[in-house]
Amino acid sequence: MDIQGLKKTLEEEFAKVNSSQELEALRIKYLGRKGVLAQYTAYIPTLQPSERAEFGKKVNEFKIFCCEILKEQVENKVSLEKSVVEQDLDPGLPSFTFEPGRLHPITQVIDEICSVFKRMGFWIVEGPEVETEYNNFTGLNISLDHPSRDAFDTFYLKSTRKLLLRSHTSPVQIRVMKEQKPPLAVIVPGRVYRPDAVDASHSFMFHQIEGFMVQEGVNFSQLKGVLEVFAKEVFGKEIKMRFRPHYFPFTEPSAEVDISCIICGGKSGDSEKKKCSVCHGKGWLEILGCGMIHPNVFKNVGYDSNKYSGFAFGMGVERIAMLKFGIDDIRLFFSNDLRFLRQF
Ligand code: PHE
């Protein structure tokens, strides 16, 4: 039995140990029931009686060596693990918290408005933000000399004046009507773009929601009814509405719709001293444009305007959200400031 050789191998093997599992494997290898020591011990009775005492002494010496080195290694291991714990890991610290995400206030308002119209039977349709000049203007009866076609009011793509960033969601009327036959009741949320200088009430990109309905016999009172349901659901039952005559090339007759001021209830108009900061003492807030779809638009999509009639409306989502939440600067929606966004 080469006891020096055995001790050397044992030391080398223990020196390589990196984990408590490896340490346990070595313990089993040497001290286990079928381990190296057990095998030497079992060998003793097969020896000549004269050799047994000598051999037994060596086995015993190796056993003590094994136990000592194991004890030492276990202590090392524990102190190693302890130092890791002390330096890098404090199990007493609170764990990382992950704040659940939430929807942007604009998305929340879009979802709310769309769900009101969905309950009235409207489908939700989306269209592309890059549009043809035809869908954005010509198809909607917006004449070539209309000021909104001017490059200052529309983002045109490169030198072609054929493609642009849509300046309203109304081109989706053209897309849907070209594809589908009446009856139609459609609601269109989406982004629109206008080259406005950014300030508290303007942004080069904002959101609109378009709605339209086409069928035989659709009339202005149905438009009023649908919009009244919308305004009361979104702003509250006590809200009043008024329609003011207006002009849009794609609707005739056209109107702008106001709701009674949600802050002063329309009562601040009288006193010069205490003007309401939201309606500026007017008592009314403009929320959307609307009207009966112009016969030229029907002609452009191949509908018979003697048979069908329809209404359309369009609103700015940021404006609705600002009124609803009492926000006075449109830039807050787009500055990614969590202190603002966490409030919704
Ligand atoms: N497209 C119009 C705008 O952007 C809004 C509108 C839509 C008006 C539909 C009437 C009918 O101002």
Number of H- or I-type helical stretches:
11
Average residue-wise pLDDT: 90
Estimated radius of gyration: 40 Å
Helix/strand-derived category reads alpha+beta
Beta strand count = 9
Detail the poorly predicted runs: none
Query: Strand order within the widest sheet?
Result: 1-4-5-9-8-7-6
Order of helices and strands: HHHHHEEHEHEEHEEEHEHH
Write a concise keyword list for the protein shown above.
7-stranded mixed β-sheet, alpha+beta, binds phenylalanine, single chain, two-stranded antiparallel sheet, 344 residues
Describe the structure.
- By secondary structure, the protein is of the alpha+beta class.
- The chain is built from eleven helices and nine strands.
- Strands 1-4-5-9-8-7-6 form a seven-stranded mixed beta sheet, with helices on both faces. A two-stranded antiparallel ribbon has the order 2-3.
- A hairpin with a 2-residue loop joins β6 (241-248) and β7.
- α5 (105-119) crosses α10 (317-325).
- The model has no long low-confidence stretch (mean pLDDT 90).
- Bound molecules: phenylalanine.
- Phenylalanine (PHE) is lined by residues 168, 170, 210, 248, 251, 289-291, 312-314.
How does the SSE layout of this entry go?
Elements: H1 3-15, H2 20-31, H3 36-43, H4 49-88, H5 105-119, E1 123-124, E2 130-132, H6 133-136, E3 163-165, H7 171-179, E4 184-193, E5 205-215, H8 220-235, E6 241-248, E7 251-260, E8 284-293, H9 295-301, E9 309-316, H10 317-325, H11 338-341
Parallel strand pairs: 1-4
Antiparallel strand pairs: 2-3, 4-5, 5-9, 6-7, 7-8, 8-9
Helix pairs in contact: 1-4, 2-4, 5-8, 5-10
Bound molecules: phenylalanine.
The site of phenylalanine has 11 residues, from β8 and β9.
